[in-house]
Design a protein that fits this description.
The protein is about 30% helix and about 10% strand. The chain is an alpha+beta fold and about 120 residues long.
């Protein structure tokens, strides 16, 4: 389904470790430029399911709150986008492993001035 809708691109078929035929896929980046609208919760749910199925030793989790001006929010988003694009555009090789990354950003209700609350 994700290949048919342009979110994933099928790669060349290959033989897996046990001889089974595998068709690896690569993200196209289409989801980066969609208006989230009604897609927000399904995207979050999909990431949570993937995260839950990953081995504990291969999970990394970060969360933060920061006090930012409108210009700083734009800068932060631009820098995250650039970092995503830099790593997304790297080609897979013999020693590479696919990793998933999810970011979300929203204005937060303030509980005072301490950004760590």
């Amino acid at each position: 389904m994700l290949v048919n809708t342009g979110f994933l691109e099928a790669q060349e078929a290959r033989r897996g470790r046990r001889g089974a035929r595998e068709i690896p896929d690569r993200a196209t980046g289409k989801s980066w430029y969609l208006n989230a609208g009604d897609m927000t919760h399904p995207m979050i749910d999909a990431f949570v399911a993937e995260f839950d199925s990953a081995p504990h030793e291969e999970r990394t989790l970060r969360r933060m709150a920061a006090m930012l001006t409108a210009d700083e929010v734009d800068e932060f988003r631009d820098r995250i986008d650039a970092l995503f694009e830099e790593f997304r555009s790297r080609r897979s090789g013999r020693d590479t492993k696919q990793w998933a990354l999810f970011t979300a950003m929203h204005a937060s209700h303030q509980h005072g001035t301490d950004p760590d609350l």
